[in-house]
Sequence to fold (146 residues):
Amino acid sequence: STQSTWGIYVGQKTLAVAGRVEFYGIQYARTWSKLLSPARATSSSIEVTGPELWPVGSRLVVTSTEFDINQFEEVTVTAASNSSNGSATYTLQSILIQSHYGNPTGISTTLGVLDNRAEVGLLSRNIRITSDRTCLLYTSPSPRDS
Fold:
């Protein structure tokens, strides 16, 4: 029934919680990294700092390194491997459309060396809330119909 014990109609495919709900999944040591080398347009792989391997099928974001913030890209990992230099290399499902900086500039500031490499973030998480298709076939009467 879509009518709760309080008489509130919440509709179909709704997760209604009166209280607290907690979800637990795999905790990654890092969910953000930086490019270790430039990622050129038409490249189908990227190399990032750190040995953390995100799983095949993960969705990643590669941030823009240009003045246009909309030059970020979402990519999907098809293969992942650790390199001997302590980095991780990811093969991508599709090629990059934009080029992304992957080297520190070498410009010194009072705060250190300017690092404008693209950041790479893990968008996928391992908890997914879904429902089966059979609930699409079931139509519950609305409270207005009673």
